[in-house]
Amino acid sequence: MQPSLRRVLSVAVCIGAVTLLAYACERPTKQNQSVLTGDAASRVYVAPGSYDEFYSFLSGGFSGQVAVYGLPSGRLLKVIPVFSQNAENGWGYNEETKPMLETTFGFIPWDDTHHTELSMTDGVPDGRWLFINGNNTPRIARIDLTRFETEEILQIPNAAGGHASPFTTPNTKYIVSATRFSVPVPNTDVPIDSYKQNFKGTLSFVKADEPGKMDIAFQILMPGYNYDLGHAGKGPSDGWFFFTSYNSEQANTKLETNASQNDKDYIAAVNYVAAEQCVAQGKAKAFPSQYMHNWMDEASRSARTETKTSVKMLDPRDCPGIVYYLPTPKSPHGVDVDPTGEYIVAGGKLASVIPVHSFTKMKKAIESKAFDGELSGIPILKYDAVMAGEVQKPGLGPLHTEFDGKGYAYTSMFISSEVVKWKLGTWEVVDRIPTYYSIGHLMIPGGDSKKPWGKYLVAMNKITKDRYLPTGPEMFQSAQLIDISGEKMKLLLDFPTIGEPHYAQALPASMIKDKQVKFFELAKNTNPGVTKSEAAGGIRRDGKKVHVNMIAIRSHFAPDNLEGVMVGDTVYFHVTNIEQDWDILHGFAVLGATNSELILNPGETRTLKWVPRTPGVYPFYCTDFCSALHQEMQGYVRVSAPGSNVKLSANISEKAKTQLSRAQTGAGPSAQR
Ligand code: K7E
Ligand code: CUA
Fold it and tell me: What is the pLDDT of residues 279-289, one digit of tens each?
């Protein structure tokens, strides 16, 4: 079958499913076989020992994590736990990282991550940090790209569903979070059918340019609609932020139909520079709000946590000119700003066109007051006065758009399951390629920035079905790498992904690969449980708590054998990996522990809490194959009945004892291999 004919047929079949957005349209798999020529294979082949050209960061969706893949190979390089416990490296299980998952709702070891966002300088990814949102219990995390670890998490109050997040302003002064669900603000016990009176949305601007100091600069109180996505202006539109806003019907039941009544919903255009000025003039109200801020203390590598009690809440009525509504067909989902900053592209998921607004026209419309009424004090601009153009017949179910920096835009079409390439300015469709199946977001490295590296496009698909060997009812999600360097898009590669990656970002590997931390300096380790040399290890009782200070080095723990622990005690194993060498990790696990192992980066201290239940002797061992004598890296803890008179003792090796006596005679301890 001709591709075009097949597409027409598929579209025809799909039209029946328009109202059933959840249904994916399938195509026969054989049709793309011919595309996968040797040429495609060589384009994605990264020879053993060679590096990929790009790091890509895919949100882990409902896994709560971030997955790092090399492009073009699609090789999985790392899974970074964020809003999750990860037994693989003890994140969220050990005492140092647990506080990162604290919220005012308690300890929450899970979230639904949607969007990764790289920090930017002058509108271009700069390789410092990666942000990601937690959608369910609104939070934003910062990952440091010199160590690929989560370093900070800020909870967002007065919100529910932190979905339009964490998109950045061009210099990462702010990242944003807009509420997906409107809720009573403050949240109180009211009838759900009092939605129109009591429910509100909030847009949060979070100060993000100082590590460890993330905080809510201000929130804007908005009408009770749903807010899906946002993007900052750039260039001429710098200083503005655009958010999609749907359910202008304010439906609070059966949204599927009741929130799809109006022909147009909105993009909310927010002048955040003007909002800043109003906040500075004291026009925002102090609004009591409980939320938590957690961050990793640099020197101790231990998380700290604080509870905040108030935000600055700005009502647009108290600060005219900070928000305008751009009418936008129909239930818009994505909103994306082109590299020049002039065009604001909406993905009206039920719209038959892709509407594009002009920033220049928007400014003029504001000046000439080309309004069509107002909502809660927010002027509605006239559609014709702000529209730059419409992409006609783009396909079905437009969601998200990215740019190649060469004048083209690429929009994901969920229902017709394809990527559509179109030209900015003329709005003509110039190419399309099917995706397998039901694409959500797409990503071009730097594709939402001022300077995209427009060589590849990654399609992130919702339905996997027959793309891989089947693995029961549940399969991994599926990404597809598409070559966009030429006139025609070419499918290069399928690769499976973890969770449901909604969005992704990528940057050239050369920007960060030489900045990677190889080990933490032991001398600078200020963890209260640190043990810097073999001789300094030991065991100490503090009431019912027993603290073990231990080192790990190839190929032993010191101390190894421990006695004098009793049932009823809580044991804290503070284990320090005193290696100062790249990629020499040790692990620590003890029989019957109810959390997970510890994985110890060189120079780092991690603490495992262990509550023995019955008397006996419990082995512990290293879980990471570190050396030829890894299997010898073990010890025992003797646990006695409560009230036993077994003396508290820790066995330190002969060598360490020698070091200890040298230390006591003033020779000084030294860590040795
Ligand atoms: Cu379209 Cu959460 Cu960005 Cu999924 S969202 S696709
Ligand atoms: Cu240390 Cu294996």
Answer: 999 999 999 99
